[in-house]
Write a structure and sequence with these properties.
seven-stranded mixed β-sheet; alpha+beta; 1106 residues; 50 strands
Length: 1106
């Protein structure tokens, strides 16, 4: 759907989606002739832990003097929450609702909005938040795009800003937003500056997002002449827009009904919940305003977003496990609500949505076939299910096209700027001006007009001529026109005041009169109404113009927790995010479910010992491969459901396409053949593939390091690919830290090669949490909060919050875990938060940082070319402390450390697909040495052979051989490409043809440093040499081909020549046995056969043969 930018110069476009509850920013660097790529700002202060999150809370905190002290995610950091309480900061949220037009009143119960600071007006608050977003955007763009950073100062003065707003907002709101952009310093207060701010409705922005992402079934819509609705369900407003496709080459759509806007977003669901909770707990000790506020906020963060059905028993987690009031439904810090109670909070919002969509259907001249739900509120499973149910009678398909639609407005606003898919729109209101009309007593109303719903294109001008007369010339040199909007249904009256004369006719025939003809010009084809006054001057017109189950609420999240829950019989009861639903947490406690997590660490090779050996137990009747298969099966089920719901055309052919589906499994750099074999076996157990050669071939593997490289290359986040310098991709994950070093060897087409053997350290973020729990248990050993259950709860909250936002040794860190009543000042607990000092938290990170620095330094030392940049990806790379420490430690190497994109938590999955498609890596470095047990031909001139002569064995041919040798086929550090075969020529002498039924060879791996010894007993650390696999070949076909020889006793023996073949250029090692069979030997080939024999003899003596 993308098309090349047709502009003549480079330009930066930044779009802002300032939402009622959450806000986001997207941007695009437009280069002439290049396809535009829309990017999100995905790293914000205070939210570094939310890797890939493109939105922050729309919140500001002011002190009593009106100074902005914190905004966005920073306003919700525990230390700032304390300052809000202690220093009486004013917390401002939901301020966007105050900007609504007077024609959009909120329900009486929803008008209790948080106050603004006494010395701030609304436009100043909006400007402060815009300025904060702009600051975050600038920091992110300059850090992410190093080349752009150098030209920022010159480019910022030409930057275009796109501001999204609800469908129901009008010119007054657009004017206030533009004024806020001026106040915030984004643009100067000049005509040129103001022209750099554009507006787009949230409905039209969402349409552009859907069109650009290719999630709409445009072919059916165009050929069947069917309409569709884009429903942007947000925090404050619900915006509905209806369109039809009028052309596909190029793509063009047209609005078919007047857009709707309802002030019933998800914010109001929370408001109704708080009112209910206040009444429910009015006689409870948890009924104070502070408690109700806390419970209401937790309802907003959790329960509201996962609620699915009236039959649900919903719980709101808000306190510690000690909080209890069974009479009022509170147990273990959770308030229980019935599904019917929660459903009432949603009811008005659902009703408003149905009414708006029904109106669009009624007003449209063509059938509407599909409703596409986008926006944060569309992630609510209950909201989606109810809309589907209510629209079933219209035979309308309701779908959420993509789990990332919370960013639809910001992304779509950028697309709106350069794609301009909408060719015409419907006017929401009628527009006109106060006018003195020639008096005609015979026709007091002259005519009746109906303009509401007029179809307007981008180029259409609506002109209303009028004339100004004045007894003096000055009276016509300047003229003010008031533009009116008639907002009721039906056509407007021609008269402002029906039944009353608007003017008195005055005879001025005997006086000198100055007259000027004007025209009121309205252009409404864009998303911003433009009104101008035009007149003719010197005959030249001069215009003076004034979506995973249990995680639907985490919109855009591409990951779920790697967790499974089994009952005592070993049945899988819940997995992923569903395992953390409040009702399942209760069942874990009540029904003794077994919660399995961190199981991937159990799959590590024996060569990767972990300092943390205390892993959660597996169910007694489950082995590791079965657990892995259960989780893979769950992921495939989720994937199938999502793909079929999102791609309606693909859904129809799913049964045929699934039997040819290729599966790419990513794994840590340090995993080997045994782990790959277990993963392939798990796919068979999960029913993903049949246990056949064809089925097994549909499973491919890629290391996490190489997958991350492909992600970075495909996303275009690597800089200076032509400078012939090396770079490191560091994938910092939950279990392992994977480091890979590469250089670019070609750009047309793009090709890279590995320059050092990849590293893998078992020191991921999981181990930071493990160390924290050990510390917390010791710290609280004499506290009433020191029980195993309490320590686990506090440790889990540390993992979810504090660990991810920790920045510096000077930080005073708070771990929120309980209710405001939880207190133990002696042990650092106040208002349900445990205080930890920065140096304490830093100690939890220290081993992981040390392992990272060591691995990167090793790559630098092993590389033959300079390494200049380290790119950090993976979830753990979002830790600001880890990033800062790596920068500090690598500064002495003059190495730049950067996080190319906050969405890199999905790098492995995205990169694994790119690996299959793009295959950027042409060669790799062998991490270990590979070989086999070998008998060396005795060489009397070799001192080592003389020393071992007593162990010699005489073969039937009379040759003296020394057993116990080790012959290396592939040496550590060797460069390998995918076409290269590493062959080790071998020879055996057999005394019976019965020994030819099969041939078995054991392949060994040596993981030690340096070259592998020539003798097995010379391996100092026996654990570094391990049998990797056994290769068995059917050699029975050679029985009729081998020619016997006679030994000294005239007994027959046979000589078998074969090769051990290793292919290691891909990410999966392949080993084979090769031999010559059914080849006719002509007399001219005798020399070749003798050469082959000599080659084997030479290898037997330990000589290197090419």
């Amino acid at each position: 759907m993308a098309k090349a930018y047709t502009g003549t110069s480079r330009r930066l476009v930044i779009a802002f989606d300032v939402g009622t509850t959450f806000s986001g920013v997207s941007y695009c660097l437009l280069d002439p002739g290049q396809d535009p790529k829309i990017c999100n700002i995905t790293r914000y202060p205070g939210q570094e832990h939310a890797s890939g999150s493109s939105k922050i809370p729309t919140v500001l905190c002011y002190d009593l003097q009106g100074k902005l002290r914190a905004a966005g995610a920073e306003a919700l950091l525990p230390e700032n929450v304390e300052k809000v309480e202690d220093e009486e900061w004013i917390k401002v949220e939901w301020f966007k609702l105050r900007m609504r037009p007077g024609s959009m009143p909120a329900d009486a119960q929803e008008t209790n909005l948080p106050c603004l600071p006494a010395n701030k007006i609304l436009v100043h608050v909006f400007a402060d938040f815009l300025g904060y977003l702009m600051s975050c955007a600038e920091n992110f763009i300059r850090e992410t795009h190093l080349t752009l950073s150098r030209s920022w100062d010159s480019m910022k003065n030409d930057t275009v800003f796109i501001l999204g707003h609800p469908n129901g907002w009008e010119g007054a709101q657009q004017s206030m937003m533009r004024q806020a952009a001026i106040i915030s310093g984004m643009i100067p207060d000049t005509d040129q500056g103001r022209s750099r701010v554009k507006f787009v409705t949230e409905g039209e922005a969402s349409l552009h997002y859907c069109l650009r992402e290719g999630v709409l079934d445009l072919v059916s819509a165009y050929t069947d002449n069917k309409g569709f609705v884009i429903a942007d369900l947000g925090g404050g407003t619900l915006d509905f827009s209806a369109y039809k496709v009028i052309g596909t080459q190029p793509l063009r759509v047209e609005e078919i009904s007047v857009a709707k806007c309802e002030l019933q977003g998800s914010t109001f669901v929370t408001s109704r919940a708080k009112i209910f909770i206040q009444g429910k707990l009015c006689k409870s000790r948890y009924g104070s305003d502070d408690h109700v506020k806390q419970i209401g906020e937790r309802f907003d963060e959790t329960t509201k977003k996962v609620f699915r059905d009236t039959s649900d028993a919903c719980v709101v987690p808000f306190g510690s496990i000690a909080d209890k009031d069974l009479e009022n439904g509170i147990r273990s810090g959770k308030l229980k609500l019935s599904g019917y109670e929660v459903a009432t909070f949603f009811k008005p919002s659902i009703a408003a949505s149905i009414a708006a969509i029904t109106d669009l259907i009624s007003e449209s001249s063509i059938p509407i076939a599909t409703v596409y739900l986008v926006g944060g509120f569309s992630a609510s499973p209950y909201m989606t299910a109810q809309i589907k149910q209510h629209l079933k009678r219209f035979d309308i398909c309701v779908t959420s096209p993509d789990g990332q639609t919370a960013k639809a407005v910001a992304d779509g606003a950028v697309s709106f700027y350069f794609d301009q898919y909408v060719s015409s729109r419907r006017a929401k209101f009628s527009y006109g001006m106060g006018l003195n009309t020639d008096y005609n007593p015979a026709d007091p109303e002259h005519q009746k007009r109906k303009n509401d719903g007029t179809l307007v294109s981008k180029e259409t001008e609506f002109r209303l001529p009028f004339c100004v007369e004045s007894p003096n010339k000055k009276g016509i040199l300047t003229h003010e026109v008031k533009l009116y909007a008639y907002q009721d249904k039906g056509g407007p009256s021609l008269w402002k005041d029906q039944g009353k004369p608007l003017f008195k006719n005055k005879n001025i025939a005997d006086s000198i009169c100055w007259c000027q003809n004007y025209c009121l010009v309205i252009m409404f084809g864009g998303t911003e109404l433009t009104a101008q006054v035009a007149w003719e001057e010197n005959v030249i017109p001069y215009i003076y113009h004034n979506r995973y189950p249990g995680q639907e609420h985490i919109s855009g999240s591409s990951k779920i927790p790697t967790v499974l829950c089994y009952d005592s019989q070993g049945n899988l009861c819940a997995a992923g995010a569903e395992a953390f639903l409040a009702e399942n947490i209760e069942q874990i406690e009540d029904e003794k479910w077994i919660k399995v997590e961190w199981f991937k660490i159990r799959m590590r090779p024996g060569s990767m010992p972990s300092e943390e050996s205390e892993l959660p137990n597996l169910p007694s009747n489950k082995i590791l491969v079965q657990v892995f298969a259960d989780f893979l099966g769950y992921l495939v089920t989720c994937a199938e459901k999502f793909i079929r719901e999102t791609h309606l055309t693909l859904s129809r052919s799913w049964d045929t396409i699934k039997n040819d589906t290729v599966f790419i499994l990513g794994h840590p750099n340090g995993w080997e053949g045994a782990q790959q074999n277990m993963m392939r076996q798990a796919t068979i157990l999960a029913g993903m593939i049949p246990n056949t050669p064809e089925g097994r071939s549909r499973v491919r593997f890629v290391t996490e390091g190489e997958a991350s490289l492909h992600y970075c290359l495909r996303e275009g986040v690597l800089d200076n690919l032509q400078d012939k310098k090396g770079f490191v991709v560091a994938d910092l994950g939950g279990g392992t830290l994977d480091f890979s070093a590469y250089k670019v060897v070609a750009t047309q087409p793009l090709k890279v090669e590995e320059i050092s053997a990849a590293k893998c350290e078992l020191q991921g973020s999981t181990f930071v949490t493990a160390r924290a729990k050990i510390f917390i248990k010791a710290k609280l050993r004499n506290s009433r909060y020191g029980s195993d259950e309490q320590v686990k709860q506090i440790g889990d909250r540390f993992d979810e919050t504090t660990k991810k936002i920790f920045k510096d040794l000077q930080d005073t860190c708070l771990v929120p875990f309980g209710s405001i009543a939880d207190k133990d000042l002696e042990n650092g607990i106040r208002a349900g938060k445990l205080k930890l000092f920065g140096d304490e938290v830093a100690s939890f990170f220290k081993p992981s940082i040390a392992a990272s620095v060591t691995a990167i330094v090793d790559l630098i030392n092993e590389s033959q070319i300079p390494i200049t940049t380290v790119y950090l990806v993976g979830g753990f790379s979002a830790s600001p402390y880890v990033t800062t420490q790596l920068k500090v430690h690598l500064e002495r190497f003059n190495i730049s450390v950067t996080c190319p994109d906050g969405q890199t938590a999905k790098a492995v999955a995205d990169g694994a697909i790119s690996f299959y498609l793009d295959q950027y890596v042409t060669s790799r470095i062998a991490r270990f040495s590979y070989g086999m047990e070998f008998s060396w031909a005795f060489d009397p001139s070799n001192l080592e052979h003389k020393r071992r002569e007593t162990t010699a064995v005489i073969w039937p041919s009379g040759r003296k051989m020394l057993p116990g040798g080790f012959n290396t086929a592939l040496r550590k550090g060797s460069r390998v490409d995918k076409e290269t075969e590493f062959r080790l020529a071998c020879c055996n002498e057999l005394t019976s043809l019965g020994q030819l039924s099969s041939k078995t060879v054991d392949l060994f791996v040596y993981r030690g440093a340096g070259a592998s010894p020539a003798w097995k007993d010379e391996f100092v650390n026996k654990d570094l040499l391990a049998r990797l696999c056994t290769i068995t070949a059917d050699t029975s076909g050679l029985k009729k081909q081998l020619v016997p020889s006679l030994d000294v006793n005239r007994n027959r023996y046979w000589r078998l020549y074969f090769d051990l073949i290793i292919l290691f250029g891909g990410t999966e090692l392949k080993a084979q046995i090769g031999w010559i069979e059914n080849v006719s030997i002509l007399s001219t080939d005798v020399n070749k056969l003798e050469t082959r024999l000599n080659r084997c003899r030479n290898l037997g003596r330990g000589k290197k043969v090419n």
